[in-house]
Amino acid sequence: MNAIILEDTTLRDGEQSPGVAFSKERKIAIFSSLIEAGIKWIEVGIPAMGGDELDTIETLLERKNEGMLVAWNRGVKNDVIQSLKLGFDAIHIGLPTSNNHLGDNLKKDRTWLLKTASELIKLAKDSGVFVSVSAEDVGRSELSFVEEYAAHVAESGADRIRLSDTVGILTPERYGAIVGRVKRASGIAVQCHAHNDFGLATANTLAGIQAGATFFHATVNGIGERAGMPDLAQCVLALKILYNIDLGVDETKLISLSQVVAQATRVKCYPWQPIIGENVFAHESGIHADGILKNNTSFEPFLPELVGGVRRIVIGKHSGRAALKYVLQSLGVMFTDSELIECLRLTRALSIKIERGLRDEELLGVVAAVRQGSCFNK
Q1: Are residues 173 and 238 in the same domain?
Q2: Which GO MF terms does the UniProt record name (predicted)?
Q3: How many CB atoms lie within 10 A of CB 238?
Q4: Contact (Cβ atoms closer than 8 angstroms) between residue 57 and residue 44
């Protein structure tokens, strides 16, 4: 298998999440965190927006020696010229292949599409840059035409075709099949661009890579239009652990990277979000906590240290004696067996009453109540 390249699009498609807007300082901070994590291909934005966005892009381009910065462009000559003048070494040209987008939205036909693609590719390749071209809305495109289009853009000199499941309607089986057919029809490098409307973006991306794609898009925390995009951390860890594909990303930076983007979007990740959620290495259930204390691989697919995480034993309704004993000892509390049993009973009752797990100070309060012979819920 050829080397697989992760291209992050948090700063472009990710920022297109409804209600999200990154300031210049935020975009630079996210860019820096991506680079620190070892991510080398980054789609940084849309130069044609002008204004503050253009100013930010120009600042980021001062650091283009740190990675491959990609500009997103409409299928418009002036957009491409602008990106070339800015000094990008890689550009993407967005063009649709479905009748929904090509005919209904742009009021153009396939002849126009093929001609425009050729002209824009030639314009960019004459400047010696890497050229990526979309087949937007591929999920609703006629596959035989997508094959023809892919062969056409390859012959025109494009380096890559981006197969965009624009409305996220493909299954992994269908997406993988499309990638395979496009590869066979054109020989061009394929990039996965999957949206998450049915929760299948990461699965579709993995299927596309299995079918021969060598590039894929992801965003930090899975942000993006509507339901978002493949989550970067999930893709990185799934490829490394489940498929033995190392992308060269520093996995210990994934949680801190997630936090930087969560602050920028003002949206905290839910606790059970795979890989980076605060509950991923948290254990409360008696059997699980007891197992993890005996063998730290019992109920975790990988060690928390791999992604910069920390294991937690949570005390609450579902806790058992082993977990309670472990946490009390870690707090420096000495106890008898009878005290431990009574503490467990009161702990479970308090957890139900307050409808959550106990904080350390609350657990210490339970211990004090047991030793005083009182009961908090009388």
Answers
A1: yes
A2: homocitrate synthase activity
A3: 20
A4: yes
